[in-house]
Every structure is written in structure tokens, then in C-alpha cells.
């Protein structure tokens, strides 16, 4: 599959970043679970990609999501989440990371621009991550939220349905 070429193995991320061609910058980085891909994700990723030349998406691994979100999550395994993100034309690369926070991923990827969605503010993003990014001279961008999109809301709606209408 051609899309598999977009996956950067975590253990090679530091080397990948060090050898990123000059014409590939600025490097824009965002991260998240991307459990059920929805229009809010698409909006964020497309807007993030427009800020630079290369968009790297960090994806939280299954074990970390289970610790963060509880049993039954993620809904889709990491392999499927990576493949769907790779299929998006505006996503340049994806990298799966195992930690609960993105500290090591951000340090290795060393973005020029770091993006989070409008459900965050500079005060509500992980403050350790913020301090790291600021110490590296990274520009932090909070993009507007697209409607009321969230995986948790979608899952609550699905689970509240007793019967599904016939297709």
C-alpha cells in the first residue's frame, strides 16, 4: 500500500526529523487519539497542513488510550487509525507513540509549528508539553473548532440508540 510510506516508526522519528529536507519546512505537528475520524478532525488536519509544508500527525497508541479514556476505547485499533490518517492527502506523515502524553514525541519531532484544536486553549493544553514547545521555540497555534464534533459525543449518540434504522 502506498499510504504505508507515510508511517514514520517511532524509533526512527529523531533521525527522520534530522534528515527532513529543507524544502519540507516548516514542519507542522499535531497529535491525538483520532479514535473515530470525524469532520472536526478533517477540518483541523486540513487547516494545520495549510500552515506549513509538511504535516506530521502523532497518534496515541492503544494502551495509552485505554488508560486515558477507559475500557472499551479505542473503538478502532491503532493500525486502523494510522491507515485512515495516511489516506488523507493533506497528511504528510503519521507516527504512533506509546506514551500517555506527547512529551517524547514532541521532543523527537521538534515541530516548527504545533497545532491543537479549538477545544483547547494555551491554558488547557498539557502545560509540560507547552513549556517544552516554548523552550524549543515552537509556534503554538490553536485552531477554531468545527461545530460540536467530538468522538465521545458521537459514541454517546450511537450507544443511546436502541434500534438502528434500516439502511
Overall description:
The protein is of the alpha/beta class. The protein has a single domain (2-11, 31-156), classed as Rossmann fold. It contains 7 helices and 5 strands. It has helices at residues 13-18, 39-49, 62-69, 78-86, 103-109, 127-135, 151-160; strands at 27-32, 54-60, 93-97, 113-116, 139-142. Strands 3-2-1-4-5 form a 5-stranded parallel β-sheet, with helices on both faces. It starts with 12 loop residues before the first helix and ends in a 7-residue tail after the last helix. The mean pLDDT is 91.
> What is the name of the CATH architecture?
3-Layer(aba) Sandwich
State the CATH topology. Answer: Rossmann fold
Instruction: Name the overall outline.
Output: globular
Radius of gyration: 16 Å
Query: Structural class of the helix and strand makeup?
Result: alpha/beta
Question: What share of residues is helical?
Answer: 25-40%
The total of helices stands at 7
Low-confidence stretches: none
Query: How many domain modules?
Result: 1
Q: Please, what is the CATH homologous superfamily?
A: HUPs
Distance between the termini: 31 Å
CATH level 1 name: Alpha Beta
Q: Which strand-content bin applies to the residues?
A: 15-25%
Number of DSSP strand runs: 5
Output the strand order for the largest sheet. 3-2-1-4-5
In sequence order, what are the helices and strands, one letter per element? HEHEHHEHEHEH
Q: Could you describe the largest sheet, including whether it forms a barrel?
A: 5 strands, parallel
Mean model confidence by pLDDT: 91
Amino acid at each position: 500500500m502506498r499510504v504505508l510510506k507515510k508511517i514514520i516508526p517511532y524509533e526512527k522519528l529523531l533521525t527522520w526529523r534530522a534528515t527532513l529536507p529543507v524544502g519540507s519546512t516548516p514542519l507542522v505537528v499535531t497529535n491525538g487519539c483520532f479514535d473515530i475520524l470525524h469532520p472536526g478532525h478533517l477540518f483541523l488536519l486540513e487547516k494545520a497542513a495549510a500552515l506549513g509544508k509538511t504535516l506530521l500527525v502523532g497518534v496515541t497508541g492503544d494502551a495509552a488510550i485505554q488508560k486515558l479514556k477507559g475500557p472499551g476505547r479505542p473503538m478502532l485499533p491503532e493500525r486502523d487509525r494510522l491507515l485512515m490518517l495516511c489516506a488523507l492527502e493533506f497528511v504528510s506523515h503519521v507516527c504512533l507513540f506509546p506514551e500517555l502524553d506527547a512529551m517524547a514525541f514532541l521532543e523527537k519531532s521538534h515541530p516548527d509549528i504545533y497545532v491543537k484544536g479549538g477545544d483547547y486553549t494555551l491554558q488547557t493544553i498539557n502545560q509540560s508539553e507547552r513549556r517544552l514547545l516554548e523552550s524549543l521555540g515552537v509556534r503554538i497555534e490553536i485552531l477554531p473548532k468545527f461545530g460540536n464534533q467530538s468522538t465521545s459525543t458521537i459514541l454517546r449518540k450511537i450507544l443511546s440508540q436502541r434500534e438502528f434504522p434500516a439502511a
